[in-house]
Task: inverse folding
């Protein structure tokens, strides 16, 4: 019985993740929709990281804010999210030395 429940839960989880991969390839979005979808990783990154920016160095929130500004500048230049994060981490590291 447990095996059937585990298989059922895996199918219920897997199907909604696989279907969009096949459907999205066939859809043609308008340019503004593509721009909006392209901005989602940066928006999610900002929502997850912003609280940590203010507390990266206790009692010195300006260091985190400067690191966040570096990330914003790198992201606005069109760099990959990974490079924006690495730039912010490097900036904070150099400011705390």
Result:
């Amino acid at each position: 019985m447990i095996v059937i429940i585990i298989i059922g839960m895996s199918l219920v989880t897997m199907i909604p993740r696989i279907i969009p991969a096949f459907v999205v390839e066939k859809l043609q979005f308008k340019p503004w929709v593509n721009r909006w979808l392209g901005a989602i990783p940066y928006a999610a990154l900002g929502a997850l990281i912003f609280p940590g920016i203010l507390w990266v160095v206790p009692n010195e929130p300006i260091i985190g804010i400067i690191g966040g500004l570096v990330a914003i500048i790198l992201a606005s230049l069109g760099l990959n999210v990974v490079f924006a994060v690495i730039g912010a981490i490097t900036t904070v590291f150099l400011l705390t030395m």
